[in-house]
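re: the backbone from monday

yeah here it is again, tokenized this time
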């Protein structure tokens, strides 16, 4: 799975911008996604450390590059940012060491859904008796973006997944080229779950996917923003990070979080198995807990266009207006309650996805 990220000017870390004191030995090294941590956060973290150690933040262009770094088994990195999509595999491959949540002052401020996501057994499966393998840093959603001008002429605006089946937008929209996402949105439309383990129990699923397939103009997970901007499509299903306010304002776009719930993703801090035990590098735990401080979490959310996991638990009246009034950063509680992470599924279920996806996709679009 690939999620693209727009840089936010000088608020995003660039290579080497935080690596100070190069003649000194680096005390703390983090590999992270480019543009995911504002410089202001790093500066404030360093200011709170008594001995001002050398901290090296090394940005990578894509999340899959960070997963590749874990597989290279480097012993020089203290923390790596990892998408939740790769967490199960990383645990199974013994690429990670567990973390100690008991030392985190703000751990209990995370919603239960986020705590459960990173508490797993040695096979990478969710297990309330398992260990904590990662610390959620930020999250986003799968959303619907659309051209305001075109929908004004139609006289309605998208609100939920069911709108994709409307005849007046046939061949005018794109969906993600990803079976868990696209079959999953159908499951949500039908009142089911993204994480159902037997697709055969949803009797109308195949026909619903076939009807959607006939309506779709293109499947795209990487470049769907371009045809939306040019007007080749009027609507796109995509990831919330791909639609920052500047892009929406410039190109007459609006974004809605589907009312029946959507899929969630989260970027995590993980500790490579090849490095020293976490107890020997206290900066690791300090950085994680620092990211969850309410002031820092709020700042990160506004500057990166994603949301800290502690924000949904905060009092809306204590949040900046720009945050609490932004449905992409602070969705309605009832929508968030119905939304889900894409959890690990048995191989038998994944085979059902592959089989159904291949069967319908080989049918001619527009037939």
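seq for it, each position gets an aa:
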């Amino acid at each position: 799975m690939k999620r693209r990220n727009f840089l936010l000017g000088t608020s995003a870390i660039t290579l080497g911008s935080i690596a100070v004191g190069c003649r000194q030995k680096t005390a703390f090294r983090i590999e992270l996604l480019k543009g995911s941590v504002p410089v202001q956060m790093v500066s404030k973290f360093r200011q709170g450390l008594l001995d001002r150690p050398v901290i090296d933040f090394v940005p990578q262009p894509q999340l899959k590059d960070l997963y590749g770094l874990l597989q290279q088994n480097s012993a020089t990195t203290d923390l790596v940012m990892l998408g939740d999509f790769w967490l199960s595999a990383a645990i199974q491959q013994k690429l990670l060491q567990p973390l100690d949540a008991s030392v985190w002052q703000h751990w209990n401020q995370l919603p239960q859904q986020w705590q459960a996501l990173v508490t797993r057994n040695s096979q990478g499966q969710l297990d309330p008796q398992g260990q904590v393998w990662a610390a959620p840093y930020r999250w986003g959603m799968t959303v619907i973006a659309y051209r305001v001008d075109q929908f004004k002429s139609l006289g309605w605006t998208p609100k939920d997944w069911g709108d994709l089946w409307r005849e007046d937008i046939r061949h005018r929209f794109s969906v993600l080229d990803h079976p868990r996402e696209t079959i999953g949105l159908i499951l949500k439309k039908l009142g089911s779950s993204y994480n159902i383990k037997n697709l055969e129990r949803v009797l109308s699923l195949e026909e619903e996917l076939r009807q959607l397939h006939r309506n779709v103009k293109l499947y795209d997970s990487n470049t769907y923003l371009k045809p939306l901007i040019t007007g080749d499509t009027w609507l796109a299903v995509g990831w919330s990070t791909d639609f920052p306010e500047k892009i929406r304002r410039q190109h007459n776009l609006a974004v809605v979080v589907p009312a029946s719930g959507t899929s969630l993703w989260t970027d995590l801090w993980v500790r490579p198995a090849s490095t020293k035990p976490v107890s020997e590098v206290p900066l690791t735990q300090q950085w994680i807990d620092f990211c969850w401080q309410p002031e820092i979490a709020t700042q990160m959310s506004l500057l990166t266009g994603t949301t800290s996991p502690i924000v949904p638990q905060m009092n809306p009246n204590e949040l900046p207006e720009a945050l609490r009034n932004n449905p992409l950063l602070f969705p309605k509680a009832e929508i968030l309650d119905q939304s889900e992470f894409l959890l690990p599924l048995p191989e038998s279920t994944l085979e059902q996805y592959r089989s159904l996806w291949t069967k319908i996709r080989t049918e001619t679009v527009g037939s």
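The radius of gyration is 21 Å. The CA atoms of residues 15 and 58 lie 6 Å apart.
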